[in-house]
Structures are given as C-alpha cells and as structure tokens.
Amino acid sequence: MGVTNEQFLFSCIDNSNSGTINFQDVADACGITTKGAAYIKFRRMKEKLGTIPNGGEETTGAGDATASGKSEKMTTKKVVKKSTSKKRKVEASEDVDDVDDGVKAIKEEVTEE
C-alpha cells in the first residue's frame, strides 16, 4: 500500500526549496515510481482541496522543478484524428494529357541546357 496523504504532503514540504518542490526526491521518499506520478498526486490533491480549479493552470510554478534545478513543463500528448474522407477518383481527360505534354517539354528544355 502507498503512503498516506499526510506522509506525502510532509515529504513535499521536506523536499521543497523556496516554494519549489523537487518531485524526484518526493517520489524516491514515498516509493512512487516517477516524479511525474508524484506531481500528478500533488496536483490532484490540490484540485480536491479546491486550491486550483479542475483542469486549471497553476500560478505558483510548483512542480516544474527537476532534481537538477532546471525547470521543465509537463506536457500532454494531443490525439490527432485521421481524416476518414476518401478521395474521389479523377477520370482521365484531355486536359491531363495536355499537362503531361507540357511537363515533357519542360524536361526536354532543362536537359538541353
């Protein structure tokens, strides 16, 4: 079983510096697999307590610090939906043949130079 919320919050306080929490150290102390998982646990607790609205942005910047002190943003992947529309087939016409002749003429001019 995991740590209690109180133990987790104490670890967050213990592993913070000037209001910035080192989530890698929190994860190590609490037996959480990654610093991202520790950050998510902290964020969900804040949402539950009402300190930030669900899906809202944090203004303190807490949770963006890494073990080396550099900041990085937590990002989410966007799901790109494939287009399901089908292209319709173009019937061969005389216009296409005219274009092909024009392309051949240009290729011949380029090769002559």
UniProtKB/TrEMBL annotation:
Compositional bias of kind Low complexity: 55-69
Basic and acidic residues composition-biased segments: 101-113
Listed PROSITE patterns: EF_HAND_1 (PS00018)
Region (Disordered): 50-113
Domain Myb-like DNA-binding residue range list: 5-50
Pfam families: Myb_DNA-bind_8 (PF22980)
Compositional bias of kind Basic residues: 76-89
Residues that span the membrane, as ranges: none
Protein known as: Myb-like DNA-binding domain-containing protein
